[in-house]
Amino acid sequence: GKLSINRPEALNALNSQVLDELDLLVEEIKKDKDLRCLIITGEGRSFVAGADIKEMSTLTPIEGKEFGAKGLAVFRKIELLPIPVIAQINGFALGGGCELAMSCDFRIASEKALF
Fold first, then answer.
1. Using the 8-state DSSP alphabet, how is residue 16 labeled?
2. Average predicted confidence (pLDDT) for the chain
3. Across the strands, what pairs with 88?
4. Helix H or strand E encompassing 115
5. If you average pLDDT over residues 1-6, what whole number do you get?
6. Rounded to the nearest 10 degrees, how much is the dihedral formed by the CA atoms of 83, 18, 3, 99?
7. For residue 85, what are the CA distances in angstroms to 25, 64, 100?
8. Percent of the chain with pLDDT over 70
């Protein structure tokens, strides 16, 4: 299967909506007994440019901590998937994007990948 982060206008920065959607997709993937491998990539010129700083700037300190914990929980679920997960890194993989790539079993980077 292939999962694409699709926020190219924001360089695929992770916001609450994307993290929630990733979490739901990972839960569905865990139930799919026919899926043998997962590729995670980003649309456009970025894999994931990190957390959405624009959204984070509106959060209280407690909300910010919860946002970070949500990201870590999703990345851990990806790390524990029972199938091989490949990060197809096509551009920026900064901050949370690098963490997402590191939660995958394999990382394949294009010549345009930046960490």
1. H
2. 97
3. 41, 108
4. none
5. 97
6. -60
7. 13, 28, 11
8. 100
Bridge partners, residue 5, by sequence: 42
Query: How far apart, in whole angstroms, are the C-alpha atoms of residue 115 and residue 113?
Result: 7
Structure tokens at 110: 């294009």
Q: Which helix (H) or strand (E) holds 42?
A: strand 38-42
For residue 62, give the nearest of 54, 74, 70 by alpha carbon: 70
Q: For the chain, give me the number of helices (H) and strands (E)?
A: 4, 6
Segment 14-27 shows an average pLDDT of: 98
Apex 57 CA angle, 54 and 113, nearest 5: 45
pLDDT at 61: 97
pLDDT of residue 55: 97
What is the rounded CA–CA span in Å between residue 52 and residue 38?
Answer: 24
**Which residues, 6+ apart, have CB-to-CB distance to 85 below 8 Å?**
37, 38, 39, 40, 78, 103, 104, 105, 106
Q: What is the C-alpha to C-alpha distance for residues 47 and 35, in angstroms, rounded to an integer?
A: 22
**What span, in angstroms and rounded, lies between the C-alpha atoms of 57 and 42?**
23
